Amino acid sequence: MAVAVSRGFGLARPGWRANLDIVYTIIVSRLKIISRYKGMLLMEAFLPIMFAGFPLLLGFAIGGANAAQNFQRNTGTTADYRLYMLIGSCVFMVVTLMMWLIGYWIRREQETGTLESMYLAPAKRFYVLAGVTTYAFLRSMMIFVIALFLGSLAFGVNPLSGNVLLAFGFITVGFLPLWGIGFIFGAFILKIKEANSVIQLVQWVVAFLMGIYYPITFFPGWMQYVAASFPPTILNDGIRSSLLNIGNLFGGEWWVPFALLLAFSLILPLLGYEIFLQTERRLKRTEGVGQY
Amino acid sequence: MNRGHGLGREDLAQRLQTFWEMSKKTIVEFSRYPIAFVALFAQIFLIILMFLFAAIAFTDPLTEMEVTLPATTEGAATLDWLNQTTTVLGVDYGSFTVVHLRAEPAVVQSIQARSLEARELNAGLGQQIAGVMIYGFVTNMFLSFTLWEIGFSIREEQARGTLESLYLSPASKFGSLLSRIFAITIFTGIMCAAGVLMVNYLVGGLAFQNAGFALLVLLLSFSGFLGFGFVFAGISIKLKESAQFLVNGTQFFFMIFSAQFFPFGALRSLHPGIVDYVSRWLPVSYSVDLFRSSLLGFPAGYPELADPATEFVIVLLFGILSPLVGYVVYRYVERKARKDGNLGEF
After folding, report:
1. CB pair distance less than 8 Å for A200 and B129
2. Quick check: is A10 in a domain?
3. d(Cα B104, Cα B86) in Å, to the nearest integer?
4. Under a CB-based contact definition with an 8 Å cutoff, are residues B179 and B22 in contact?
5. HSE (CB half, 13 Å, CA atoms) of A111?
6. B68-107: per-residue pLDDT in tens?
7. pLDDT for the residue numbered B304
8. Are A63 and B58 in contact (CB under 8 A)?
9. Residue of A nearest to B246 (CA)
10. Does residue A3 fall inside a structural domain?
């Protein structure tokens, strides 16, 4: 009891230290849980290599000895198509994990019956979500680095020949819009419940739109605009253009996609959080958040 | 009472009735999750589209042609023009001048207008590769659903606590396993047909020959896949949650080594040993190869692993033996779990 009281907030309002502690506790608890499933982590690290491997084999079959030349001519990007696809697959993994981990976390809490209990805790939802999204980012970044390293060895490419610092900048800035998308996605799962199927569908829509195997210039005109206004596409394009030393979708200047991502970083997390809160309020008034 | 079997033994009609009731249960479950169903349909189209775009990125942007010109001054003038506008790979002089070249698609019509005969050498290659991809994808869909559905539904029954009760009923265990995949197989068939039609529309016509034979190969292959499904159902009872990783791994293994999205030639170009020491030893490879080769009309170089008769014998044996072996494995694991008392544990 004494321990519980000493660790609770009592009637006081939690300060910044307590809020930070919420974020930290959630990150640690999620990391502890995932450390029990080492096979899953291993599988996730290999998935981007598999995703990149299929189109590469298709490319060998179609292009033969001219695969690199054909790819460069058709896409107007680079002859280093192996690294092009590997980067696309790794960025896709980051994006999909951000959505999957947040959506699945909500669903899991609903199913295990702990979501409503969490709402009774004197912790602000923002910090709880910040903990989950930060954990999702840490896990996806770890997978990104491992997959890029192993994939580079498997495909015989060098991912460090381009502007690594700029790529790192893109990842850092691109994380915030993904955070916002994660909130929106979480709200959606809270509302419609069928997490698995929705996540699966959305992850393929994302993969299609962000062009993990091809530049979005392959799309018809209107679809190019839709895809280009999607933060994961800009993130993917930014990382690719910096690591491969090629032009980007927005005319070659690195700061254009960077500024766009920065703008999304300011808008999307706030928008996503607001949508999450609204959905949550509506659900609390009707069937309750724990129903699944 | 009147729907049970009492002390009597089940006859064929009763077995069929039980099977239908069990399958109906799966259909009712599906109908409760319409979003999941729509999502499944949509994601299949998205995957196909992604692979098609990836394939387009590697196609030869130039048209390879064999052009026949008259051996006259007019022909010589056309040859000069061809030298300026295209990449001439070789010229054969004789009673006619035959030019082998690579040209931009924009000038193909002008070449055809200026020559006696102009033949596109790489015409139809795109459709052939699209056929290899989509027909391989069809086998992948059936294999994936068989691997996932039986084991996954057993796992669900474990979690819900209904698996042990189910074993107390006098219903056929084989029928129970089969009914879990029956409905999804019909849906998979419809989805695959829609996917093939979409690719057919997008690439401007797919080869679709020997449909009857291909259907027989698909049925035999599906029967063979069932064997894997039964084994994985047994593994799910034994390994519980961890079985998912194994299914995932197996799925990717077959995707790559049974060349479900690309020709075996692509694997061979990486290393001939991959095909000779891995792919050739997998019956699934022969199912994939024979199914798509027959639908493509056995073009030159297809089937890639063996001649059609040999491949058919392998697929036939696979279709007959695999479900029997798979079921024996499943029953062994299940009996052991019942003896140990952990059938319903999850």
Report:
1. no
2. no
3. 7
4. yes
5. 13
6. 999 888 888 999 999 998 888 889 888 889 999 888 888 8
7. 93
8. yes
9. A39
10. no
pLDDT of B183 reads 81
pLDDT for the residue numbered B5: 59
Three-class SS string for B181-197?
A: HHHHHHHHHHHHHHHHH
Chain B's closest residue to A78, CA to CA, is B57
- Cα of A203 vs its chain's centroid, Å: 10
Q: Does A2 fall in a domain?
A: no
Sign of CA dihedral A260, A261, A266, A272: positive
Q: What is the pLDDT of residues A41-69, one digit of tens each?
A: 888 888 899 889 988 988 888 888 888 99
Task: Give the CA distances from residue B166 to residues B94, B149, B169, B181, B344, in Å, rounded to whole numbers and listed in that order.
Answer: 81, 17, 5, 17, 10
Q: Dig out the tokens for A227 from the structure.
A: 């895809």
Query: Cβ of A61 and B263 within 8 Å?
Result: yes
Q: Are A257 and A248 in contact (CB under 8 A)?
A: yes
> For residue A267, which amino acid is it?
I
User: What is the C-alpha separation between B250 and A46, in angstroms, rounded?
Assistant: 13
Distance CA B33, CA B40 (A): 11
Strands (E) across chain A are located at none
How many domains are there within chain A? 1
**Cα of A152 vs its chain's centroid, Å:** 21
Q: Which residues of chain A have pLDDT under 70?
A: 1-13, 193-195, 287-292
> What span, in angstroms and rounded, lies between the C-alpha atoms of B326 and B147?
12
Q: CA nearest B55: which of B126, B105, B104?
A: B126
- The answer to whether A59 contacts B58, with C-beta atoms less than 8 Å apart, is yes
Measured between CA atoms, how close is A221 to chain B, in angstroms?
15
For chain B, list the domains and their CATH numbers.
12-56+126-340 (no CATH), 62-121 (3.30.70)
The model's pTM: 0.80
Residue of A nearest to B47 (CA): A204
A192 vs B35, B129, B245: nearest CB: B35
A contacts of B156 (beta carbons < 8 Å): none
- Are A230 and A264 in contact by the 8 Å Cβ rule? The answer is no
C-alpha B140/C-alpha B245 separation (Å) is: 18
Q: Does A291 reside within a domain? A: no
The Cα A123–Cα A18 span in angstroms is: 9
* DSSP category for residue B86: S
Q: Which domain holds residue A276?
A: 16-64+74-285
Amino acid A21 reads D
Which of A57, A80, A217 is the best mutation test for B, with the most CBs of B within 10 A?
A57
By three-state DSSP, how is residue A272 classified? helix
What is the four-CA torsion angle of A53, A55, A58, A60, rounded to 10 degrees? -70
Cβ separation B262–A75 shorter than 8 A: no
